[in-house]
Each structure stands twice: as C-alpha cells, then as structure tokens.
C-alpha cells in the first residue's frame, strides 16, 4: 500500500473473525476499505498529517453486525409517531390506554394502527376462545377503524369499524392462505390470520413517500447505534424497492440492504401463477445492484407461526390439529406441490430462494422443493435458505448440509416469544427450537437474526441466548444446542455475508474488506454472561464513514 490511511484505530482488540479468529491490536481504513490489520507499530506507520487517529484504549472492534433477517421499513414504521407501540403491553387496561392515546393514521387519516401485541401478555386475550375478540377493543376505539398487528406480523386484530369498512361479514369466505376467525355465533371475531390480513389492509391509507423515506432513514440510524451495518430485508415489495433505490440515489443509506423480493405483501401467500408472471417481466436475478443495495433473492412463505397454530407440524399441537402450508390448494398435497412449483420458479430465474418455515413438516416440504430444484437444474452457488427453522426434524440436517441449504435462526425469539410458544407447542418442543448448535455440528450454514420489528435487534442478547446466558424465562437453550462465543459472533457477521454471496468483502476485518465495523466497550467473546448484555457500542463505521458515535478519544 502507498500513501497514508484516512483513519487508524490503535491500542485495542481487533476481532477479525477470519478463519482463525485472529485478534490484532490495530487497523487502518483508506476510502471505503480496510487496508491494514496488525500491530500498533505496523498500523501507526500508515498515519499521515490528515489521518484520523483513534485510541481504542483497550476497546474491542468487530466487523459491522449483519442481521440476516430484519424488516427495515417495517421497523422504521413500528411505533410512534406512526403507530401505537404495543410491545410489552401486559394488560387489557394498558392496551386500551395505548389505543386511547394512539397517533393519527397514515397520512393523517382516522385509522388507528397498533404494532406488537402478544396474546400471552394480556390475560383477557389469552383466555379468549378462539382468540381475542374485537369487543375487547371496540369500547375504546369506537368508530375509529383500527388494525392491531400481532408481534409475529402473521395476524391482525381489527375492530368492528374496520370490519365494516372492509365488508367482512359472516358470509365472507376465507381467502387462499388465510383464515377469518369466527366467534361462537359465526360472526367474524376481528382476528384475521395470515392471508386474511389482506382483506383489511388495502383499505388503510398509505404513508406518504416522505414519511416512508424518513422512517427508513431513522431506522438505519437506530441500527447504526447498535453496531448494525448490513441487513437482509426479507419482504421487499415493488414500492419498497423503489424507496430503497431513492434513498440510495440520494446518498441517505447508512445500512447496506440485501433485498428479498415479495410481490404480494401484506399477504404472505404468492400463487405460482402470479409469481411466474412477475418473474417473467422483472428480469431480475440475485446479485443485481451494488454494495449498498442489492437484490439478494426471493422470499416465499411455506407456513405461518406456532403461536397462531398455523405452522405445519408432524406431531399435533397440544390443542389439536397440525396446521398447514399457507400456499394455495384444496388439500395438503395440492399446497405441497404449489410450494415446490414456486421454489422451482425462483431457482430457475436464478434468484436465491429463502423460505419461511416454522413447523418441522413445513421445513421438510421446503427442503424437498429446494433439493428437487437443485437436482433438476444444478446451480452450485445458489445458497438457498430456510428462514427461522423454529422446529426442525433433526434427521434432515445432513440433507441440508449436503445441498448447502442454510438456516437463518431467530435467537431473540427465545426470550421474547417463550410464553406464547410454550403454551402453543409445549415446553419440550420449545426447548429445542432454533437448534443452531446441532445444525452447525451437522455442517449446515447458520446465520442469526432479529426479525425486527418482531423483536428489537439486540444482537448481544441473541449471542447471550445461544451461548447459554439466557435472559428471562422460557429462553434456556439445552447444552447440546449451545454455541461457543466465537460461533455466535460468526452468526452475526460472516454468516450473513456468506448468504449474500459477499464473504469476499464483508463479515471480516481483513485487508480489502469493506470498512464496516463497530467499536464496543467490552469483548463479547470473553465477557461473562451478565457483562455480555451490558456491552455498548461506542462508534460505528460503514464504508469508512463514521455513522454513529457515543464518544471516543482520539
């Protein structure tokens, strides 16, 4: 290298997360790349009169955190000033208070939007059969149409006014891939599962472009403050792709976005016929874009979620039933074939396919489709993936490894969803959910994620959970499924880069890599369990530019 570096960081613990997990004390950045990693003396020699010199004072440097499954735009719009924040609401009284003070709807409309309720947190919801009823919120919402998104984003509770506007009555049939829950009198209860959400959401006014762009930009800043520099947004519909493109063109991105395309949101279901039409006109394939905004692939949904009993299981739920695939079709066989056709379409168009699966039977079905597509039309570098893998058939791990089918786990759900999940599927099955340790031992590529806004993207809490320092009840991971600290760090750095086909430029602190990094006030590899979750980011750099600082010495 010739010339001087733009920035040098000295006197710290630089965790390169390379193959050997090398630890250095200093690194240099020139432009948007890391140009040297080594000892203080080696790197100090690269400083010139205009070089920014940062004394780390023993702090730890990690590659920028890569959240492999985070809904960036949804995260930006979740909560004030755009919606009522229902995360953590622990009683019906608190819920009604939050709704009474709810903000204006999109574009200043009368609609009231809430985000993040969990039935297990609200006794009156949990006791309702068959699920929470609109009458529980009608009293406070009145004639103001209201849509309350479940924390999983796989269902909504709407009030009577919203049902009336949408024209949903006792005679309205269930849509493909969805279910209108009905009360004992046969009337719609207000709870709409999976694709049935789409019966109401088209009536909600849209946010303005300015609102959307500002919300995304604000969300990026929040992520930067956590040390997050890259995300895969797993549901990017056409309008959202345009918004990301606008932000990229305006130079407003501070988080790199790997986009998974989905044409039918807010319905999770996409018919193979619609998908074939969309792909035929789109002319897209994985890798289109640049290091800030890239088309990563295609998102498909196989099933729903265990808390709504819409995940497809081999063994029945404690309350009965197995759930089902949410693809179109009159029976399990037809829905299975529809899923496989959709997978084949994405694969044939050379789009990496990531499939939402939470039930073990759904995961096996998705794996069937991915393996069939790979055998019939070989694409050695496809790197398809199963998203969540909440409940997996351990006998199938070898097949996933053989065909390089990755699993994107959700460690943070262990502590956020435990009460609901334990009630829905039983403590034994929940204990072995997200089996990252067993997957890695079998040779399966695993990346971890927050699924924000389903959970807050506290990746350090995720590391603590998967390594055995579980925060809160229902979050303990059995010993044979736990990770080492180094493994857990890789799940938030190099693993996401691998899934993006970007391991040559992201995920490690090595010369030639993009200068994406976070400086922490503690070491996540050596800190004890309690201290691990108290570590704070000090500053974050993306592409050589400081995008967050909490105060440094230099």
Automatic annotation (TrEMBL):
Domain Amidohydrolase: 53-548
One of the record's GO molecular function terms: hydrolase activity, acting on carbon-nitrogen (but not peptide) bonds
Domain of life: Bacteria
Keywords: Hydrolase
Protein name: Amidohydrolase
Pfam families, sorted: Amidohydro_3
InterPro entries: Amidohydro_3, Metal-dep_hydrolase_composite, Metal_Hydrolase, YtcJ-like
């Amino acid at each position: 290298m010739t010339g001087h570096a733009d920035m040098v960081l000295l006197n710290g613990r630089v965790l390169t997360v390379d193959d050997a997990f090398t630890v250095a004390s200093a690194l240099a950045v020139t432009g948007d790349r890391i140009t040297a990693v080594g000892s203080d003396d080696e790197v100090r020699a690269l400083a010139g009169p205009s070089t920014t010199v940062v004394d780390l004072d023993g702090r730890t440097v990690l590659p920028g955190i890569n959240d492999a499954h985070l809904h960036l735009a949804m995260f930006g719009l979740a909560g004030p000033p755009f919606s009522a924040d229902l995360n953590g609401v622990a009683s019906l009284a608190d819920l009604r208070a939050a709704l009474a003070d709810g903000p204006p709807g999109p574009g200043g409309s009368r609609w009231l939007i809430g985000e993040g309720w969990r039935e297990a947190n609200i006794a009156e919801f949990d006791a309702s059969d068959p699920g929470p009823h609109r009458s529980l919120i009608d009293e406070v919402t009145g004639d103001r149409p209201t849509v309350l998104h479940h924390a999983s984003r796989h269902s909504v509770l709407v009030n009577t006014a919203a049902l009336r506007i949408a024209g949903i009555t006792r005679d309205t049939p269930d849509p493909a891939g969805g279910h209108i829950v009905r009360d004992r009198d046969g009337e719609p209860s207000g709870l709409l599962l999976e694709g049935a959400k789409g019966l109401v959401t088209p009536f909600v006014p849209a946010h303005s472009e300015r609102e959307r762009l500002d919300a995304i930009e604000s969300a990026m800043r929040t992520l930067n403050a956590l040390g997050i520099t890259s995300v895969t947004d797993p549901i990017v519909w056409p309008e959202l792709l345009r918004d990301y493109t606008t932000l990229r063109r305006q130079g407003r991105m501070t988080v790199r976005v790997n986009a998974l395309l989905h044409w039918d949101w807010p319905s999770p279901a996409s018919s193979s016929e619609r998908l074939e039409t969309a792909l035929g006109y789109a002319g897209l394939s994985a890798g289109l874009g640049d290091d800030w905004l890239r088309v990563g692939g295609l998102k498909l949904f196989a099933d729903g979620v265990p808390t709504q009993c819409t995940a497809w299981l081999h063994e029945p739920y404690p309350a009965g039933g197995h759930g089902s695939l949410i693809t179109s079709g009159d029976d399990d066989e037809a829905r299975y074939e529809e899923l496989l056709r959709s997978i084949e379409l994405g694969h044939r168009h050379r789009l990496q396919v990531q499939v939402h699966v939470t039930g073990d039977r759904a995961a096996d079905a998705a794996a069937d489709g991915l393996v069939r597509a790979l055998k019939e039309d070989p694409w050695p570098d496809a790197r398809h993936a199963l998203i969540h893998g909440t409940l997996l058939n351990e006998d199938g791990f070898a097949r996933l490894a053989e065909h390089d089918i990755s699993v994107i786990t959700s460690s943070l759900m262990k502590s956020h969803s435990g009460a609901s999940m334990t009630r829905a599927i039983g403590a034994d099955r929940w204990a072995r959910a997200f089996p990252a340790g067993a997957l890695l031992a079998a040779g399966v590529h695993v990346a971890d994620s927050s699924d924000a806004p389903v959970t807050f993207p506290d990746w350090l809490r995720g590391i603590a959970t998967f390594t055995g320092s579980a925060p809160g009840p229902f979050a303990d991971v059995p010993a044979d499924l736990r990770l080492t600290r180094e493994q857990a760090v890789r799940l938030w750095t190099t693993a996401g880069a691998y899934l993006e086909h970007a391991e040559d430029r992201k995920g490690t602190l090595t010369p030639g890599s993009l200068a994406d990094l976070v400086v922490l006030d503690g070491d996540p590899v050596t800190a004890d369990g309690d201290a691990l979750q108290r570590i704070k980011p000090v500053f974050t750099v993306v592409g050589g530019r400081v995008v967050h600082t909490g105060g440094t010495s230099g």
